[in-house]
Amino acid sequence: MNPSRLLPLLLGLLLAAPALAEREQALYISADRVEIDDAKGVSSYLGRVELRQGSVTLQAARISFFRQGETLSRLEASGKPVRFTQGEGEGQTRAEASALLYDLQKGEVRLTGGVHLWQGGNEFSGEQIRYDIDKRLVKAERGTSDDGRIHAIIRPGGALPGVPGAKPAEEKKP
């Protein structure tokens, strides 16, 4: 898979904010340096890395693309933190974590290390969040707080994290 098609697919699926129109836009990458090892099938962008495509931005200390033959097999981003944004204003989706892994062969996206998601005024945090693309299944594990739990803040009228178009049920009045 071409890296220019990977970023919006990965992040759109991960955060339930598809960027279908953005997939066809140019992918811009800036970094302090680039290392390409064609024999090993690894391309790494290092030092203040920023990927942009349309309204999607991914920032990290390091972003690496791995391929097997001519097929992209995984993307890894690391930093303190890895930052993702898509959109603007109230509709913006943001995420921060220590690492992001997209395994194309497993069909899984994993955010690890102090994961925090913000979407539509709502927040979700945990130590690890996995997204199974085929099953459309999100799993969150171990919170980052002292109590070791997952934490979510759902504001009235806000979309539910990870559920496209879903909003909290309106409270019935007696």
Structural features, described:
- By secondary structure, the chain is mainly beta.
- It has a single domain (3-153), classed as Sandwich (lipopolysaccharide transport protein A fold), CATH 2.60.450.10.
- Helix content is 7%, strand content 52%.
- It is built from 1 helix and 10 strands.
- Strands 1, 2, 3, 4, 5, 6, 7, 8, 9 and 10 form a 10-stranded antiparallel beta sheet that branches.
- A hairpin with a 4-residue loop joins strand 8 and strand 9.
- It is globular.
- The chain starts with a helix and ends in a 21-residue tail after the last strand.
- Mean pLDDT is 77; it is low at 1-20 and 164-169.
Helix content: under 10%
Order of helices and strands: HEEEEEEEEEE
β-strand amount: over 45%
Summed over residues and divided by their number, the pLDDT gives a mean of 77
The CATH architecture can be named as Sandwich
How many beta strands in the DSSP annotation? 10
Query: How many independent structural domains?
Result: 1
Give the uncertain stretches in residue-range form. Answer: 1-20, 164-169
The total count of helices amounts to 1
Mass-distribution shape: globular
The first-level CATH class is given as Mainly Beta
CATH homology-level superfamily: Lipopolysaccharide (LPS) transport protein A like domain
CA-based gyration radius? 17 Å
Structural class: mainly beta
